[in-house]
Amino acid sequence: MLTADITIYELEYWLRETDSEKLKELWTAADETRKKHVGDEVHLRGLIEISNHCARTCAYCGIRAPNSEVIRYRMSKEEIMECVAEAVKLGYGTVVMQSGEDYGVKQEWLSDIIRAIKQETELAVTLSMGERPREDIAAWREAGADRYLIRFETSDPLLYDRIHPGGANSKWRNRFEILNLLRSLGYETGGGVMIGIPGQSYAMLARDIDMFRKLDLDMIGVGPYIAHPETPLGSGEIASDIDPRDQVPGTEELTCKVVALTRIVRPDSNIPSTTALATVSKETGRINGLMRGANVVMPNLTPEKYRILYDVYPEKACLNETSDACKGCLQNQIDAIGRDIGSGQGGRKR
Ligand code: 5AD
Ligand code: FES
User: Fold this and answer.
1) How confident is the model at residue 79, as a pLDDT?
2) What is the pLDDT of residue 96?
3) How many Å lie between the centroid of ligand 1 and the Cα of residue 331?
4) Mutate to test the pocket of ligand 1, among 58, 64, 97, 225 (most ligand atoms within 8 A of CB)
5) What is the pLDDT of residue 349?
6) 86-104 burial by CB neighbour count: b if 16+ within 10 A, else e?
7) What is the DSSP track for 140-184?
8) Domain assignment of residue 168, given as a range
9) Count of domains in the chain?
10) Would 214 be classed as within a structural domain?
């Protein structure tokens, strides 16, 4: 049954389904659920990648601390405020400030920027700054931040530990503790996972979707894992340890299945059609995500000279497009599927 109480076994069954006729049922159910609960508006969130410094060693991520090939940058307040002005000009309702876990981004410095954005604009402010200490996350909420994104990457503790080397401060449960903290501070809270991590099985992915349901997240972002050659996971140094028949692929279709099932288990959440999905399928990824459950897109506002340095995974979609071009392109795609660009902040409607 394609309803919010779908069992874990049925979730796994759908994740393994390959018959395209049968899958149409899933796509239709997800699209109808999306329409009924969050409507036809596609909310645009302008992404500003404020720093690519990172203290962490995640085995999949191109900007991990040990990758000495990366030229590191940190944007100035003035540069960030120019991107914010661009978001306003393009009619976006939200800016998302994201960075590596960068302790050079000082609590007070970011609080000041958050206050400036909230004073000067009507924008919602979303942060994605990693596993920062409680005091930082609380201070930023105090300064006016509305939302915080932190993916838990996988609900499987053993897989999590394999892809997060680095001892006590990189344990699986930390991410869940932060999700609880965020909610207790009054943030709209976002989590998510990658799809196709070496060692990730269909059963694990079904449990990820069940975890979205249990956590009652406001925002759920999922995207395919994309191998980055300068990382232990991307180079094959860490490899899949499961039966190849159980290994999930990081494809457009599987990502769409996860988007669709996520919409079904959490009907009123905000779900992006992610850049990683658009990257693995440059022609149809973005639009298929939107037609199979998603209602959000996060176009990039980072200045071009920094954008290429925010190299989390290779060959990112839209890397060389100006923010104007992306807005126009998205406008066309959203028109073509009979949807509307969202107005206002587009927070979670319960
Ligand atoms: N492929 C796809 N997604 C990735 N992320 C990090 N590295 C990769 C990769 N190689 C995702 C993680 C992280 C988010 C900011 O980017 O899920 O939480
Ligand atoms: Fe960026 Fe199409 S969405 S160019």
Assistant:
1) 98
2) 98
3) 26
4) 225
5) 79
6) bbbebebbbbbbbbbbbee
7) HHHHT--EEE---B-S-HHHHHHH--SGGGG-HHHHHHHHHHHHH
8) 8-337
9) 1
10) yes
175 CA from centroid of ligand 1 (Å): 15
Asked if residue 42 has its Cβ within 6 Å of ligand 2, the reply is: no
- Mean pLDDT of successive 10-residue segments in the chain (350 residues)? 95 98 98 98 98 97 97 98 98 98 98 98 98 98 98 97 86 95 98 98 98 96 98 95 97 98 98 98 97 98 97 95 94 97 89
> Which alpha helices (DSSP H) does 219-322 contain, by range?
252-265, 275-280, 285-291, 304-307
- Is 346 inside any structural domain? no
Q: Domain holding 308: CATH number?
A: 3.20.20.70
Question: In this predicted structure, what is the pLDDT of residue 166?
Answer: 82
According to the model, what pLDDT value does residue 167 have?
Answer: 75
pTM, two decimal places: 0.97
- Establish if 343 belongs to a structural domain: no
DSSP-assigned letters across all residues of 50-119: EE-------TT-TT-TT-TTSPP-B--HHHHHHHHHHHHHTT-SEEEEEESS-TTS-HHHHHHHHHHHHH
Compute the distance from residue 321 Cα to the ligand 2 centre, in Å: 7
Query: Is residue 342 one of the residues assigned to a domain?
Result: no
Query: What is the number of the ligand closest to the CA of 325?
Result: 2
